[in-house]
Amino acid sequence: MTAFSLEPERTAWCEELRTLAERELRPLAEKGRPGRVNRPLLSALGGLGLLGRMLGSGALDLCLLRESLARGCTEAETALALQGLGATPIVQPAPPPTANAGCPRSGPGGPSPRSR
């Protein structure tokens, strides 16, 4: 018997994310150039609300988000992780006006300024 299991809603969310990564994000990732920022992929992550979700999630949801994306498209998970590493130190501790000035596109809608 396992000591931990996910609620059915979270399991369904993980499956939806994996399918989304396979169907929508993988084609964008495959069009990217190695060693270059894939702006269409980052824009899609923002447009789908995944960048904003990553910045506002608790540990379990963040892990599930990253794992589910990685199962469907490793490039999407890597892009999400790098955006989080760049944006989190600016967005989390700052009041909204400061966070918006430092990373205006890190929430829903796009990548952090460093990746443009």
Topology:
Layout: H1 8-31, H2 39-47, H3 50-56, H4 59-72, H5 74-91, H6 96-102
Summarize this entry quickly.
Helices cover 68% and strands 0% of the residues.
Task: Describe the protein's architecture and organization.
68% of the residues lie in helices and 0% in strands. The protein has helices spanning 8-31, 39-47, 50-56, 59-72, 74-91, 96-102. By secondary structure, the chain is an all-alpha fold. The model is unreliable at 106-116 (pLDDT under 50). The relative contact order is 0.17.
Structure keywords:
116 residues; mainly alpha
Cα-to-Cα separation, first versus last residue: 48 Å
Computed over alpha carbons, the radius of gyration is 15 Å
Largest sheet: none
- Helix-strand string: HHHHHH
Poorly predicted regions? 106-116
Structural class: mainly alpha
Shape descriptor reads: globular
Mean of residue pLDDT values: 82
Number of helices: 6
- Give the strand tally: 0
Assess the beta-strand content as a share of residues: under 5%
Helix content: 55-70%
